[in-house]
Structures are given as C-alpha cells and as structure tokens.
Design a protein that fits this description.
- The protein has eight helices and six strands; from the N terminus they run H-H-H-E-H-E-E-E-H-H-E-E-H-H.
- It is α+β, with helices and mostly antiparallel strands and about 200 residues long.
- Strands 1, 2, 3, 4, 5 and 6 form a six-stranded mixed sheet that branches.
- Helix 4 (about 70-80) runs parallel beside helix 6 (about 135-155) and helix 5 (about 110-130) runs antiparallel to helix 6.
Length: about 200
C-alpha cells in the first residue's frame, strides 16, 4: 500500500510539473495586448512591466515618460495618451525562440494635430500675458500655469482628433525568458499617434 501511495505521489508530482512547464512564458500577442490595455487604463507603471528594460533604443525610452509624474506637463501628456485609446486584437509573427513581431491596429488621439492646436493656444496666451504689467517672475509663473491648462484641455477634449494606424511592435525575450516589447520608434508610434510629425514640430527647440 505504501509503495502504491508513493507511486501515486510521484505520478501526481510529475503531472503538476508537466502542466506548469507546459504553460511557458506569455505569448507575444498577449504581452502586447496587456501592455495596450494598461495604456488604455492609464496605468503606465503596469505598462512598463511589459517593456524590455535593457533593449532600449535612442529613439524612445518608454519608461522615461512617466518618471516625472509630479510634473504638471507630464500629467497632461499621460492623460492625453489614454484619451480615446483603443486597439484591435494583436496578430503575432514569431521569428525565432527569442524574437517576435506583433502587428496591431491602434486608435488614439492624433498628437501632431493636438500639439499644433495646443501650441497655437499657448503662443496666443503668451502674447496676451506679455501685455500685462508685472515682473518676469510673475509672467513665467502665469505662463507655465496657462500652458498646462491649455495642453490638458486640448489633449483631453471630447472632440479631439484621432488617428488609426497599423503598428508593428518588436519583442525580445529578457533574461528570465519572457517576451518584452522593445522600446523603439515603433513603440513610440503605438503610444503617441503621428509621433514623427510631433518630433519634426519641435526640432530646433
């Protein structure tokens, strides 16, 4: 009887280990889906857990965008990223054991249009405030507050323009063997619609 129980225990242990081992790491498409769901919910800290911490390009570092969450301008930007954000089921293409590509259709606000609108409003506000009497310190303080107000209102407006695009996200396994999204220009486009146009807009500043 003891021998039978021992064999049963060994068999059960083997079954459990096989089941656990068979689960493996999350599929690339699931990683992207969880990342985008977190972005949609405005949970950027959670979204960052799906981004590769080591393979980061010079073009874009996702985790740096929420490092200064106490900054009012950053708060406005983060609210804008999640505003109107939506996506369709990702489709994956596994290249090899360590690399994968995931295509996904994303809809979010058009940052190129929104930032253009915000900048126009900020320039007009700067002109109006410059007509007031007061010290440079007072002007800078008022201008900073007005800029944040305009940016927040523009990025969170109900009628803000949106853009839908097909984005290819690149993934690579980390040291633990989990697929993580590479922080590159493609990820920037997934987070900030028409990001290249925004970059061109601010060249020289």
């Amino acid at each position: 009887m003891k021998k039978l129980i021992s064999l049963f225990a060994l068999g059960l242990t083997a079954l459990v280990l096989t089941a656990c081992g068979g689960q493996g790491a999350a599929k690339p498409a699931d990683v992207v889906s969880e990342f985008l769901t977190a972005i949609k919910a405005g949970d950027f800290e959670k979204a960052g857990t799906y981004v590769h911490s080591e393979n980061v390009s010079e073009e874009f570092d996702f985790n740096s965008i929420y490092e200064e969450e106490s900054d009012e301008t950053v708060k406005a930007l983060l609210k804008g990223i999640s505003n109107k954000y939506d996506f369709k089921s990702p489709e994956e293409n596994v290249i090899d054991d360590n690399n994968a590509e995931v295509n996904v259709e994303i809809t979010s606000i058009d940052f190129a249009v929104a930032m253009g609108t915000a900048m126009e409003g900020i320039f007009n506000a700067a002109f109006e405030l410059a007509m007031n009497e007061g010290s440079e310190e007072e002007y800078n303080k008022q201008m900073e507050a007005k800029s944040v107000e305009i940016l927040t209102n523009t990025l969170t407006a109900e009628d803000v323009e949106t853009v839908t695009r097909e984005v290819k996200l690149n993934l690579e396994k980390d040291k633990e063997g989990n697929f993580k999204i590479i922080s590159d220009a493609n990820l920037m486009e997934a987070v900030l619609g028409n990001s290249e146009e925004v970059e061109q807009m601010f060249e020289g500043f």
